[in-house]
Amino acid sequence: MSVKVRFAPSPTGKIHVGNVRAALLNFLFARKEGGTFMLRSDDTDQARSTKAFEDGIQTDLGWLGLTHDEFARQSERFGDYDKVSEWLKDKGFLYPCYETSDELDRKRKLQRARGLPPVYDRAALTLSDGEKAAFEAEGRKPHWRFKLSQTPVQWNDLIRGDVSVDTSAVSDPVLIREDGMYLYTLPSCIDDVDFGITHVIRGEDHVTNTATQVEIFRVLIELRGAGQVPQFAHHSLLVGADGQGLSKRLGSLSIEGMREAGIEAAAITSLLARLGTSDPVQPVPDLADLVEGFSFDKMGRAPARFDMDELATLNAKILHETPYEKVSDRLSADGVTEEIWTTVRGNVETLKDAVAWKAVIDGPVEPVIADEDRAFTTSAAALVPDAPLTDESWGALTAALKEATDRKGKGLFMPLRLALTGQPHGPDMAVMFRLIGAQKARARLLGETA
Ligand code: GLU
């Protein structure tokens, strides 16, 4: 049996670190198993779904390297959903309900007051044809619920192990709203069966849905006379560094926002693939290596902590090892050559910092010279050779200065660095000195902006 998985976002917003983790796990599992990775646009909610969000999701996934092999859009399959729901209605699996949301609210409040779980009481199942007709005459339109078996549903979850959910503790799910709109549940099951999805990998917030969906799957397989209930893997959800849920902050954790902030795709995939697993979080620039090491067995059930600082650190670590050919297309337009990149990459947090270092080389730079260092940097300026600088020039200059003054170590090097680059930290001065060149170096050591 060949593996087929899907990532099924609703194009009603941008993807963020929370939901892209499901995409990554699906992708890694598919690649590891030599299977198929489908991207499915769950756009049944036509009022909230947009093409722009759908395109944005594709852009973000492509940027992360999570390329899909197949694509499907639910809004193109309403005909299939209609056929299935007619059959479900005929067979009594879908039954019409006429309660308004206020009425349902009241029922739930009463149940709670009596200490009962707020499970739908199935009152609609006992409506006579006359009562239904009376509601229709009032202008009420039914919403449709799926009749659950009210028995335990069990599955062996690839992450959570044996799971059992008693569907008598769950309300019969509404599959079709009164305006005729399909909620995600039924189309998702129909698609999973029709597209031959073998494994459903998604967040643990879907565990209860899975119980109801297993029942729907069984009915659909009977209708189709073929198909299989997929296997399930429910991963834990991300929490913030403070241990609190991320849901309220996800707006600021979009993949697009991270890309714009200079986070590398590989930093995101390295972190999300390893969070909450028994593997250490470390730079894994190549997705193929994440594929190689992927296993559900390594995934824990505890919530995984997402820390923006950890992502930033990982981002820097990845850039520090990135060869020029991997970033040249994003750097060459700004004149950052291979030599500059190799010199400065150990001092960047994002790629933009390389452009900033190029600006330090090119100038103008406002030198930073403390009063007590002015005489020292002035004598350094006099020692800058007239000839073009070489890799040895810096060593020669600092050796001569050491000889001529009683300075050494930080007292010798820091005033030079501050004067030449305007900053207390940065790349190897031997190369920076040569790249800055004699003329600008002399001027900066004299305190001139150059
Ligand atoms: N569209 C659903 C969601 O975004 C898909 C969940 C699933 O993977 O089945 O929650």
Automatic annotation (TrEMBL):
Short sequence motif named 'KMSKS' region, residue ranges: 245-249
Enzyme class, first EC level, given as a word: ligase
EC number assigned by the record: 6.1.1.17
Keyword ATP-binding recorded: yes
Transmembrane segments: none
Domain of life from the UniProt record: Bacteria
Reactions listed under catalytic activity: tRNA(Glu) + L-glutamate + ATP = L-glutamyl-tRNA(Glu) + AMP + diphosphate
Short motif 'HIGH' region, span: 9-19
Domain Glutamyl/glutaminyl-tRNA synthetase class Ib catalytic: from-to ranges: 3-279
Domain Aminoacyl-tRNA synthetase class I anticodon-binding per the UniProt entry, residue ranges: 383-445
Cell compartment(s), UniProt: Cytoplasm
Gene Ontology biological process terms in this record: glutamyl-tRNA aminoacylation
Gene Ontology MF term list: ATP binding; glutamate-tRNA ligase activity; tRNA binding
Binding positions (ATP): 248
Keyword annotations of the record: Aminoacyl-tRNA synthetase, ATP-binding, Cytoplasm, Ligase, Nucleotide-binding, Protein biosynthesis
GO CC term (a single one): cytoplasm
Family listed: Belongs to the class-I aminoacyl-tRNA synthetase family. Glutamate--tRNA ligase type 1 subfamily.
Self-association state and partner proteins as the record states: Monomer.
Function: Catalyzes the attachment of glutamate to tRNA(Glu) in a two-step reaction: glutamate is first activated by ATP to form Glu-AMP and then transferred to the acceptor end of tRNA(Glu).
Name of protein: Glutamate--tRNA ligase
Phylogenetic classification of the source organism: Bacteria, Pseudomonadati, Pseudomonadota, Alphaproteobacteria, Parvularculales
